[in-house]
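REQUEST FORM: STRUCTURE PREDICTION
Request ID: SP-0412
Submitted by: Lab K.M.
Chain count: 1
Length (residues): 426
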Amino acid sequence: MPKPNIVIIVLDTLREDHAQGLDKLLDYGFVKYQNAIAPAPWTLPSHVSMLTGLYPSEHGIHETKELRGEELIRYSRLRISALGHDILRKYKDENYNTILISANIIFVTPIAGFEAGRNILIDPITSSIVTDDEISIDAEAKKLGSTANFILYNLRKRNIPKLLKAAQIYLIRRLKSFPKYISEHFVREKGGSLAVSLTKTLRLEEPFFLFVNLMESHSPYFRYGEEKKYYCTILKWLLTGSINPQDRRFWRTYPQHAKRATRRAIELVSTILQKTDHSNTLIIVTSDHGELLGDDGAGHIYSLKDGIIRVPLYVKYPEGWKKKKQKTYIPLTDIPKILDPSTDTIGSDLAIAETFGVYHPDRFFQECRLGNPPANLFYHKIRILGNKVDILFNKTLDQVEYTKGEQAQEVLRRLSYLGAPPKMST
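STATUS: Completed
RESULT:
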């Protein structure tokens, strides 16, 4: 029997309760699974968990007070290489034609350790392919600290060709992003249409492993120029627990962005099935995390609320494969099990999600005139979900923040990793 083709499509930041448009996948023979849980509230640790089958506390690629921003991205690449068993590498070693198409050009990139045989990055701002020149120039500007320093350095070096190339890149970016400063409607396109077009022309040599990250359901959900206000609203919520009612406007159009994301996913699936042997292709459509929409929180940062960790999960199995049965919850760490034809059941009676703190560097707080983030924004928190079980545990303080459900106390007694009985929050 030939090796199956494998496709994983991640709709970045798509909440489960805004993913109804994906039900059209059922017409293509997909199975819809309920109670899928993201292991982390943001992109990097969640993607690593999907590809390794490990929770963030196991793979170690997550935010800490000491490790955030560029340092965490560099560490991610080294750590993924050291782990040595992510499914991208696995299928590459098994002579699959591996392809990465990512519109998350910060975290889902070869620089962060997500590296296929062929890597295509799409700028969600300009909806264009990121070139090697852009990557090189952006990296140099970051290393020098600013665009001004980049210009001065290359003037001193008399590197005129590089400056001309940088000016060309900057002008194209400004021209392509200009409409997004005028109307939110133009912001809704974040590279998904280009991903579909690329897939139509892409040569998919079987067996292939295609991993796609689409950003249509990711912020911004407003016209350009207000990004700082958006992030400051999120950070203020973390510090105070409240949101100015006027600032809820930042999420007003999230439903439209979510619908755009689901449409792009349907188009992508349709394109792939037309190009390949659909009877021997396994496709997973899911999300890495959700988004709090200004009602019970803001953004996707240092929170384990339902709006962040509950995500959609749809799977199309190859012909001849048994459709896997489901236990109560399915953590995204089970994606490697979905790809294993010998596994009959996925999920477990308990699933966890965890966060280690804010992932924004201190300068974000300082730019919002909020000082430096306090220590309590870096507590390791774990949410445990099961049948009649919902527990939020602060591992740093060894304290249970809340328990819900008839079986919660029994679960607390059974979980050996908690050690001595944890203190109840007062």
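NOTES: The CA atoms of residues 237 and 297 lie 7 Å apart.
Reviewed by: T.R.
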